[in-house]
Amino acid sequence: MSDLTFEIESNPAPRSTEDRAALMANPGFGKVFTDHMAIARYSAERGWHDARITARAPIPLDPAAAVLHYAQEIFEGLKAYRTADGGAALFRPEANAKRFRSSAERMAMVPFPEKAFIDAQRKLVEIDRAWIPDTPDGSLYLRPFMIANEVFLGVKPATEYLFITIASAVGSYFKDPNGTVTVWLSEHYTRAAPGGTGAAKCGGNYASSLAAQAEAASKGCEQVVFLDAAERRYVEELGGMNVFFVFEDGTLLTPPLSDSILPGITRDSIITLAREAGMTVREELYAIDQWREDVRSGRQTEAFACGTAAVITPIGKVRGREDDFAIGDSVAGPVARKLRSMLVDIQRGNTNDSHGWFQKVF
Ligand SMILES: *Cc1c(COP(=O)(O)O)cnc(C)c1O
Questions:
Q1: CA 47, 49, 55, 58 torsion-angle sign
Q2: For residue 143, how far is the Cα from the chain centroid?
Q3: How far apart are CA 300 and CA 245, in angstroms?
Q4: Residue with the nearest Cα to atom 5 of ligand 1?
Q5: Residue 92, ligand 1, Cβ within 6 A
Q6: How far is the CA of 98 from the centre of ligand 1 (A)?
Q7: Distances (CA, A) of 59 to 56, 199, 248
Q8: Atom 14, ligand 1: which residue's CA is nearest?
Q9: Is 307 a pocket residue for ligand 1 (Cβ < 6 Å)?
Q10: Is the CB of 314 under 6 A from ligand 1?
């Protein structure tokens, strides 16, 4: 059904202006939700149907719903930004729609039509426009997801699905958006294996990363850096963010995409912007021993993580079982800062966008 469109049913009892203002004064990340959600259903008989923008509410689930047992679940994350003229814009939503389709295919789920995916995001942003923060670091974080809700305890791809998008008013992801993070080098746990689901945006990848995240927290680290599962040698990503390294000759390096690395839209945008700015970007395997050596010798001047939620986050220190190493002088470096402002300027419509990435909603 390529012509699936979302019907609008306004929330009859939205939050009052005062309640909303109080919630949005200091929203944090992922705690303050809007008045509406987008929802659509799939069944084998009817295909995708019943697409609505409606009041945000709990969803009844049968205790035998497949997602609760075998974790057929995928999600996306994108932001709507407030623009200077009081409007709002999305950044590359068709890339999220496309990745949502690939994730569905990997998890043997029925893909959601890409046009309808974008229709849901636009209509939700429009109806919940009062929830888009106008602070410099604020945005409306959109969380599309899909679950298998067939009532059946058999191991097979489900025949019924629910697509939902919820929206959350957010500030910056890390408490100090100008600070650096210390990352824990996970030498025991891995995130994704060859042939596995690492390139699909599924909740299961996050569930399996939480023990490593807890280990990191116990070592005083904010994030985990994962190595490849086959050799425990090559740096892959941070489990929720892709990673870049900057060298003294001005070149950038990021690990090449594979079936164990999530193809980040921020990663792709940074590669494009950096190359257009005349920088050399290599997509190459990068061994952990090489990382240590490049930092010790001073050949590497910066490292940073990137993703929609936190944009660009400089890595100040790497902590492993045996040693610690600090990159640069543990403050955001000039390359990370420059790329961040190039990206943010496009996302917020402060500069011309020659790529068609900036898409006005209203
Ligand atoms: C979402 C995600 C990223 C970042 O992707 P963006 O499209 O840049 O937000 C990186 N790694 C993992 C594991 C992710 O789930």
A1: negative
A2: 9
A3: 7
A4: 264
A5: no
A6: 14
A7: 9, 28, 52
A8: 240
A9: yes
A10: no
Q: Tell which atom from ligand 1 comes closest to the C-alpha of 238.
A: 11
Interval 317-343 mean pLDDT = 93
Q: Residues 66, 75: contact at Cβ < 8 Å?
A: no
Query: How far is the centre of ligand 1, averaged over its atoms, from the C-alpha of 157 (Å)?
Result: 25
Architecture category of domain 181-347 in CATH:
Alpha-Beta Barrel (3.20)
Look at residue 1 in the predicted model and tell me its pLDDT: 47
Domain ranges in the chain are: 7-170, 181-347
pLDDT in tens, 218-264: 999 999 999 999 999 999 999 899 999 999 999 999 999 999 999 99
> Can you tell me the distance from the alpha carbon of 113 to that of 185, in angstroms, rounded to the nearest whole number?
38
Mean pLDDT of 114-140: 97
Question: What is the distance in A from the centroid of ligand 1 to the CA of 77?
Answer: 8
Q: Is the CB of 313 under 6 A from ligand 1?
A: no
Strand-pair category, 7-8 with 47-55: parallel
Which residues are registered as beta bridge partners of 181?
315
Q: Are strands 160-170 and 139-148 parallel, antiparallel or unpaired?
A: antiparallel
pLDDT at 9 over 50: yes
* Residue among 100, 242, 244, 269 whose CB has most ligand 1 atoms within 8 A, to mutate: 242
What average pLDDT does the chain have?
96
Residue listed under structure tokens 């400089």: 314
CA-wise closest residue to 161 among 43, 280, 252: 43
Q: Give yes or no for residue 262 CB within 6 A of ligand 1.
A: yes
The response to whether residue 171 sits with its C-beta less than 6 Å from ligand 1 reads: no
Percent of the chain whose predicted confidence (pLDDT) is above 90: 95
**CATH number for the segment(s) 7-170:** 3.30.470.10
Contact 230, 222 (CB under 8 A): no
| Residue 109 burial by Cβ neighbours in a 10 Å radius (0-12, 13-18, 19+) | buried
Identify the residue whose C-alpha is closest to ligand 1 atom 13.
240
Which atom of ligand 1 is found nearest the CA of 266? 8
Q: pLDDT tens, 18-63?
A: 999 999 999 999 999 999 999 999 999 999 999 999 999 999 999 9
Amino acid at 10: S
By the 10 Å C-beta count (0-12 exposed, 13-18 middle, 19+ buried), 220 is classed as exposed
